[in-house]
Structures are given as structure tokens and as C-alpha cells.
């Protein structure tokens, strides 16, 4: 009986901790809407090549240390652009055909695409200032 009362009290308490912060652990942020994982070649064609907006394409791999540094940094800056640019994430192990087609020889490789064409590219990790300049050049701001 004492255990049941303790459990009822516990369940009636307001949620605390990292998962309780306004549902953020389960919600969708603005950054997530502008960033997506490419599912296959036709998805890439639809969402990247045929996109009316400029798209940053992040070719990465799960095993790549520098990719783990660059990816979140780039996602954050793309989210700050408030929908002016999208970000497509392409895992080269899952999509080797796309990596070959776009001549990706090292990861991370980031392409800037506009109207289906590659207009800029870099390989490796960049700092936030360099990434902001890359995005501004792509957006035309």
C-alpha cells in the first residue's frame, strides 16, 4: 500500500529533467524542418535537384569524426536562415551511387546546389564564419 501511494505521488508530480522541457525532446524544431535525410535517388531528385530553394548537401558517414563536428554546426546555421535554404544529409555508405555521381572522394563533402546545379563545394570541417559566408553566397544575401 505504501508503495502504491508513493507511486501515485510520483506520477502526480510535474515532469522534470531533460525530457520534460516543454516537450522539446519529442517536438520538431524549425531547424529540423529545413534539414532532411535523403532516402534514395528519387528522393534526392525530388527534394534536392528539383527544389525551388537552394540546398546544402552534406555528404557524410557515421564513422567519420569530422562529419560529427560539421553536421550539427551546419544544421544550426541552416536553421538560422529561416527557410531560405534547405539541407540534405546523404550518408555515403547508404547512397554510394550519389557519392559517385557527385564525385565525393572524401567526407565531409558539402555541395551548394541551386536549380539542380552544383554552384559551390567544400571538403572538410569549416568554422562558423566560413560556413555563414558559404550560406550567404548560396542564398545571395
TrEMBL record:
<protein>
    <recommendedName>
        <fullName>Thioredoxin, mitochondrial</fullName>
    </recommendedName>
</protein>
<dbReference type="GO" id="GO:0015035">
    <property type="term" value="F:protein-disulfide reductase activity"/>
</dbReference>
<comment type="similarity">
    <text>Belongs to the thioredoxin family.</text>
</comment>
<keyword id="KW-0249">Electron transport</keyword>
<keyword id="KW-0813">Transport</keyword>
<dbReference type="GO" id="GO:0045454">
    <property type="term" value="P:cell redox homeostasis"/>
</dbReference>
<dbReference type="InterPro" id="IPR036249">
    <property type="entry name" value="Thioredoxin-like_sf"/>
</dbReference>
<dbReference type="Pfam" id="PF00085">
    <property type="entry name" value="Thioredoxin"/>
</dbReference>
<dbReference type="GO" id="GO:0005739">
    <property type="term" value="C:mitochondrion"/>
</dbReference>
<dbReference type="InterPro" id="IPR005746">
    <property type="entry name" value="Thioredoxin"/>
</dbReference>
<keyword id="KW-0676">Redox-active center</keyword>
<dbReference type="InterPro" id="IPR013766">
    <property type="entry name" value="Thioredoxin_domain"/>
</dbReference>
<dbReference type="InterPro" id="IPR017937">
    <property type="entry name" value="Thioredoxin_CS"/>
</dbReference>
<keyword id="KW-1015">Disulfide bond</keyword>
<feature type="domain" description="Thioredoxin">
    <location>
        <begin position="24"/>
        <end position="140"/>
    </location>
</feature>
